[in-house]
Amino acid sequence: MKKLLFFLSIGIAAGITSCTKSDFKDSYADPSKISTTTVEKQFAGFLQSNKDYVLPGYWNYFVVLRTTLTHYTQAVGWINAPAQYVPGAAGINSRWDNYYSLLAQYRELEKVYNALSAEDQSLRRVYMIAATVYLYDHTQQMIDLHGDIPFSEAGMLSTNGGNYQSSLPAYDDAKGLYTKMLDDLKGFATELNSISLIAGIETGFKNQDFINKGSLAKWKMYTNSLRVRMLARVSDVPDFQARVASEGAEIMSNPTQFPLVTSNADNIQINVTDLNTPINSSSFRSGLEDWDGNLAGKAMIEHMKTNGDPRLRAMYQPGDSAAGVYIGLDPMLTASAQTELVADGMIARYNWSTLSRNQYFPGVLITAPEISFFAAEAALKGGQSAVAKAAYEDGIKKSIEFYYWLRSISNDNASPALVPTNATEVNNYIGSAGVKWDNAATDADKLKLLATQKWIHYSVVELVESWAEQRRLDAPSFNFEVDNSNTQKLPPYRWFYAGSEQTYNTENYEAVRAKDNLSTKIFWDVN
Fold it and tell me: Are 296 and 326 within 8 A, CB to CB?
């Protein structure tokens, strides 16, 4: 951490990065390579510092996700191998370093903002709110992967004038961080309703914000939708249950004051509009497809086939030798049997044109379908089964719409043409035996239906969310081959901390060393 913060917290080394488009270069320069900065430039640089972990690309998918979350969630099929449930150091370290790069750039933004006059701070308040919402989205993900993390004292080397010792950060309690973020997000949700931007600030915000294009309406949706996601995550923790019930009801009952992402048109995501800028998904192909990282898993394929899911043909394509039949790879087969099936071209793969070779694939942050599923869960727990059913079915329809939309924006035609879906097919799926809400006899069974739909929707697109929801709900349940060659015989409950913590942040790491194993559950995992 000490070494990392030295290079990342300064954020103002000499030189400017060059991009293909001059306007991107001016607006979204890497903040670690500019000689001077402003709130506006630092905000855009802060966003770009982790864009490669939002837009789908090679490093995140191949190095970080391919042998970890894609397997733990059974979003893909894979060939069994020794130590397959131990997350690799390269992936852990990479994601850890990227998050702390983001946090360091946020601290630099705070530093620049705090140096402004009170009047200028008031004019540019929207930048700090938006940056904090975005930071909290990724902080939640880090907590959901690791548990306690350095936060309140982290990324402060520049702010502390280069003093190493005073910049070594202690670990914050995960539960306390969730509480702080929920408190702050609630305040932001109210404050955003009172903010108005003068013309010059509004223009600058639109130019620098490549997520929501300066839309206050979208930032309100992002803020409240993130609140809903976080409230759902802690909804089974006794200390949070009263808060979840009251705040959830307040949000759901007042869409004017607390708007949510309720349509795919409002999804919070980084849209790709010009392949000649760094904001593109051109390396998604190698990230997902290399080393057979895009194989279909048996559980998802069988569910979709059995129930007639319209997403099947949008999300997958049959193996080259499978005669048009969708076959998923069974995790319980021997490695040799799995290898033979893959080599023979029998296993289905994620659809090239919809996903991996779609260079316009967006960087997804929050989508309407998942908000519908969270709303369904809240209504179910509140005893409103009819409301829950409507939200559940709404989420399915929007998820189907989302995947067909992804194909519609693709610039790739390597996969067969996609046969359109229709209302009859969608309704037949919703009414199928394994999907129909009324077929679930108990609330626990209905939660399993919701968990399955979240899992399908998240697929390989939102893997951190998918893994968190599966651990929280203990659903869907999967079969995994027991790895008797390793002490970690099944998928873990968390990731290790980055190795740099033991080396550079030794004293603070000692306080959490006892938790740094694969069997310690995150605080919200109480089932």
Answer: yes
Dist. CA 108–CA 49, nearest whole Å: 12
pLDDT values of the chain reduced to their tens digit, one per residue, 527 residues: 333 333 333 232 222 222 333 433 444 445 545 456 899 999 999 999 999 999 999 999 999 999 999 999 999 999 999 999 999 999 999 999 999 999 999 999 999 999 999 999 999 999 999 999 999 999 999 999 999 999 999 988 787 877 767 779 999 999 999 999 999 999 999 999 999 999 999 999 999 999 999 999 999 999 999 999 999 999 999 999 999 999 999 999 999 999 999 999 999 999 999 999 999 999 999 999 999 999 999 999 999 999 999 999 999 999 999 999 999 999 999 999 999 999 999 999 999 999 999 999 999 999 999 999 999 999 999 999 999 999 999 999 999 999 999 999 999 999 999 999 999 999 999 999 999 999 999 999 999 999 999 999 999 999 999 999 999 999 999 999 999 999 999 999 999 999 999 999 999 999 999 999 999 999 999 98
150 SS3 class: strand
Provide the token pair at 307: 């129930």
In which residue are the tokens 């626990």 written?
444
* Distance in angstroms (rounded) separating the CA atoms of residues 141 and 144: 5
The secondary structure of 158-213 as a DSSP string is: TTTTT-HHHHPPPEEPHHHHHHHHHHHHHHHHHHGGG----HHHHHHHHHH-TTTT
- How far, in whole angstroms, is CA 492 from its chain's centroid? 19
Eight-state DSSP code of residue 344:
T
pTM exceeds 0.85 for this model: yes
Instruction: Report residue 107 CA to chain centroid gap.
Output: 22
DSSP string across 399-426: HHHHHHHHHHT-----SPPPPP--HHHH
Name the nearest CA neighbour of 471 among 414, 410, 521. Answer: 521
Measuring CA to CA, which residue among 492, 447, 440 is closest to residue 236? 447
- Distances from the Cα of 202 to the Cα of 25, 123, 124, 198, 199, angstroms: 20, 10, 10, 6, 5
Distance CA 158, CA 162 (A): 6
- Residue 436 CA: distances (Å) to CA of 212, 427, 469: 35, 10, 21
Element of type H or E holding 378: helix 368-381
Residue type, 73: T
Cβ–Cβ < 8 Å for 90, 161: no
Phi, psi of 364 (to 5 degrees): -85, 130
